[in-house]
């Protein structure tokens, strides 16, 4: 991206070097390009390019699509831990720690959702406190509370014979059961 900015700056400065001078007398071909004016225009164009913020730096991190994607992908992974929680498999739940972290940050990314994110992090901390304590009943209750508080549901199975699961490689249901 910086290379394209440099190329644009060079193109702008080279174009500025050939802008006709603003003097009123008739100029010959040698007087048309005054070196001092040309370098002044090049420096001004270069300063404008450097001072301008990057135009294509939007990351699109917060949108309803990315929130839905986080809820489907990571919420599905969290919901799939139900059998492991019921059986008391602490290692299986601990192995999906990143799903909890990514769900919390992806489902509640904006400042408006700060309270919900804090509650979700508190629920995650309760789950992992139960894992560290090797307490099955605390794990079950913390997991159930986390699922209920965050509205996490199972990703539905989609039969490819009866419907389309995803439409492209970029569809967020591609790597889930719905895909």
Automatic annotation (TrEMBL):
<dbReference type="InterPro" id="IPR040933">
    <property type="entry name" value="PSII_Pbs31"/>
</dbReference>
<keyword id="KW-0732">Signal</keyword>
<protein>
    <recommendedName>
        <fullName>Photosystem II Psb31 protein domain-containing protein</fullName>
    </recommendedName>
</protein>
<feature type="signal peptide">
    <location>
        <begin position="1"/>
        <end position="17"/>
    </location>
</feature>
<dbReference type="Pfam" id="PF18240">
    <property type="entry name" value="PSII_Pbs31"/>
</dbReference>
<feature type="domain" description="Photosystem II Psb31 protein">
    <location>
        <begin position="61"/>
        <end position="152"/>
    </location>
</feature>
């Amino acid at each position: 991206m910086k290379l394209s900015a440099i190329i644009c700056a060079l193109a702008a400065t080279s174009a500025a070097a050939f802008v006709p001078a603003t003097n009123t007398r008739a100029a010959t071909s040698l007087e048309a390009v005054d070196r001092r004016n040309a370098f002044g225009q090049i420096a001004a164009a270069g300063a404008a390019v450097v001072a301008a913020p990057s135009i294509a730096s939007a990351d699109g991190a917060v949108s309803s699509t990315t929130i839905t994607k986080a809820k489907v992908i990571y919420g599905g992974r969290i919901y799939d831990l139900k059998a492991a929680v019921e059986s008391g498999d602490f290692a299986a739940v601990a192995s999906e720690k990143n799903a909890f972290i990514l769900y919390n940050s992806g489902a509640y990314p904006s400042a408006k959702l700060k309270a919900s994110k804090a509650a979700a992090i508190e629920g995650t901390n309760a789950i992992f406190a139960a894992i560290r304590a090797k307490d099955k009943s605390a794990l079950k209750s913390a997991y159930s509370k986390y699922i209920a508080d965050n509205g996490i549901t199972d990703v539905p199975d989609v039969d490819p014979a009866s419907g389309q699961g995803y439409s492209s490689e970029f569809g967020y249901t591609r790597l889930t059961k719905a895909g």
